Amino acid sequence: MKRIPLLATVSAAAIVLGGLAVAQGIDNYSPVTADRLANPEPGNWLIIRRTYDGQSHSPLKEITPENVSQLKEVWSSATGPRQTLTAFAALPADPANEAPVMVNDGVMIVSAGDNQIIAFDAKDGKELWRYVYKLPEGLIPVHPTNRGVALWGDKIYFATLDAQLVALDAKTGKEVWKSKVANWEDGYYSTLAPLVVDGVVMTGVSGGEFGIRGFVDAYDAETGKQVWRTYTVPEPDQPGGDTWPGDTWQHGGGPVWATGNYDVENNLAYWSTGNAAPWVGALRPGDNLFTASSIGLDPKTGEMKTYFQYHYNDTWDWDETVPPVLMTLDGKQVAYKFARNGYMYKLDRDGGKLSFVEGKPYVFTNVITGLDPKTGRPHYDEAHVPKLGERVEFCPSAWGGRDWPGETFDPELGLAFVPVNENHCGAMEAAEVEYEPGVLYLGSGLEMTPSEGAKDHIGAVQAWDVKSMEKVWQVDFKMPMWGPLMSTASGLVFGGGTGDAAFRAFDAKTGKILWETRLDGGIMAPPVSFAVDGKQYIAVITGWGVDGGRFQGFIDQAWGTKTDVPPGGTVYVFGLE
Predict the structure, then answer these.
(1) Distance (Å, whole) CA 282 – CA 390
(2) In the chain, how many domains are there?
(3) Domain-located, residue 1
(4) Rg (alpha carbons) of the chain, rounded to whole number
(5) What is the CATH number of the domain that holds 181?
(6) For the chain, does the N or the C end have fewer beta carbons within 10 angstroms?
(7) What is the structure's pLDDT at 452?
């Protein structure tokens, strides 16, 4: 049997668990319904970004700019025992915890990066049950992480590093069903949280670096039976098929790295797609639809109703990981997206059709010189487009102006807050490459170096007025920023993301840091806010690794430094005294 060069060794404790450990179970678990997902109670966090629109915003107001300095740790719990994951040698990385906790009427569900799911009492941290998914021998994860779970009815759904979709009984943690999504030996894997709409569980696959053909899948929530599959790279006789020369579409990439958002008004699930494969566009001339795009799918049928491509013939590995955030401004249905290519986009989504409204750079880019004012199609500076046999530099690097860590939107202030990285550039030297299942299909190596200005800062948190498309404030950090953000209705923004393991609260109006605490590790997971018995809490998980560690490694290599970021691996809950 062919072994993918993507081994997960399992700790003795995990072997003893045999895939499942039940501490005591849950007597009263509130079923999650379509109405609850569409209109979640203020004190709950039932979707990874709390609401279908992806705003990552809490309506709770007990913790305010005036009293946030009084936040204290209420409880904490390690996410171990852990599976020890050996990361892919060509792209070394420690496992990371990158999922938000989910809270349903006092029950907290935690997804750890090594494919463990743990249930806690959200008020006191008592462990209720623990499920450990044992990965197959021979699997070495490229991105050893998991970005969350989905809740529906009395079940919990999560995607695995070996490309399976698993349903658990929410009361006991016992496995209900498991469906194979794709063959991990061909380079497929999954790190995202599923998205559930009316009993349909949607998920996506990663592996663009291995020349997979990406897709979004849907499964029946009760049975695990596949409902539909929509490929992100079309066949020659399908719409967009003419943007791929020859048979390049067969291994064209288009991975789906992050969970989509759901447009309730237009009944569309918006997913964003990653890089085309191989990395260098000169090996596959054309626009290469529907990579580096956002696509709108009918959740019942999977039919693609609309799309918007941020950059054609992607040749910088600028995966457009996160979906657009949805909102209504001045009575109009719009969306915005801070794309990895360094531009912020405002899109019209009225009637379920994504169309360009406006765009402007939010970090420095020397690749895109401007956008077509009608279509948003970018204009490229050919001096910074990678070519065969020639080393070409470009800014920002492959990690882009932002990567997968998500932003937040405060609808009352009309402000979007986004974690960014700037002052870094990359380079590629392209060469011909042949596809082989389960082997890297890149066509180039990857370089990243800090650029002029990096000594001042690399990471930052920015606030943007979405209506005017103007930046309101920016807080800079000398270290890279890899922390998703969460805002609250009281005017606060919470986030981690820097290598000093700090967790911070910002004033949403000014960016002033109002509260800061050091935890046991770097934070790459989204914070959440929830309430139990009328009391508001803030929760976050530590667990540094994967691309945050890789990015810092490139900086250390360039500067001759060694930055030791504590790995962490703990759930923290904070509240007022």
Answers:
(1) 12
(2) 1
(3) no
(4) 22
(5) 2.140.10.10
(6) N
(7) 87
pLDDT-based confidence at 25, cuts 50/70/90? Answer: confident
Judge contact between 339 and 319, C-beta under 8 A.
no
Active-site position among 114, 217, 263, 317: 317
* Neighbour tally for 66: CB within 10 Å: 10
As a whole number of angstroms, the longest Cα–Cα distance in the chain is 65
Q: Give the phi and the psi of residue 445 in degrees, each rounded to 5.
A: -80, -175
25 neighbors 159 (Cβ within 8 angstroms): no
The verdict on residue 481 lying in a domain is yes
Copy the structure tokens of residue 204.
């996506």
Helix (H) / strand (E) element for 558: namely helix 546-559
Tokens 């569409």 identify what position?
A: 38
533-576 tens-digit pLDDT: 999 999 999 999 999 999 999 999 999 999 999 999 999 999 99
Q: How far apart are CA 323 and CA 328, in angstroms?
A: 16
Strand order in the sheet with 155-159: 150-152, 155-159, 164-169, 175-180
Tell the residue number behind the tokens 């180039």, with chain if given.
Answer: 444
* 230-400-495 Cα angle (round to 5): 95
Q: How many CB atoms lie within 10 A of CB 220?
A: 14
The residue assigned the tokens 């209720």 is 128
- 62 close to 70: Cβ distance less than 8 angstroms: no
pLDDT in tens, 462-499: 999 999 999 999 999 999 999 999 999 999 999 999 99
> Which helix (H) or strand (E) segment is 536 a member of?
strand 535-541
Find residue 110's DSSP bridge partners: 118
Beta-sheet pairing, 226-231 with 215-220: antiparallel
Within a domain: 3: no
Question: Measuring CA to CA, how many Å separate 360 from each of 199, 357, 364, 373, 468?
Answer: 38, 11, 11, 11, 11
Distance, in Å, from the CA atom of 358 to the CA atom of 302, rounded to the nearest integer, reads 28
Range of the domain at 373: 8-576
Q: What is the pLDDT of residues 229-247, one digit of tens each?
A: 999 999 999 999 999 999 9
In a domain, 264, yes or no: yes
Give the model confidence (pLDDT) of 181-232 as tens digits: 999 999 999 999 999 999 999 999 999 999 999 999 999 999 999 999 999 9
Other C-beta atoms closer than 10 Å to the C-beta of 152 total 25
75-107 exposure pattern, b = at least 16 Cβ within 10 A, e = fewer = bbbebbbbbebebbeebebbbbbbbbbbbbbbb
Query: How many Cα atoms occupy the beta-carbon half-sphere of 358 within 13 Å?
Result: 8
Rounded Cα distance between 155 and 212, Å, is: 30
Q: How far apart are CA 468 and CA 415, in angstroms?
A: 10
Q: What is the pLDDT of residues 119-151, one digit of tens each?
A: 999 999 999 999 999 999 889 888 999 999 999
Residue 324 · residue 347 · CB < 8 Å: yes
Residue 1 has pLDDT above 50, yes or no: no
pLDDT at residue 10, as a whole number? 30
Q: How far apart are CA 251 and CA 229, in angstroms?
A: 17
313: left (phi over 0), alpha (psi -120 to 50) or beta: left
- Report residue 523 as tokens: 């934070």
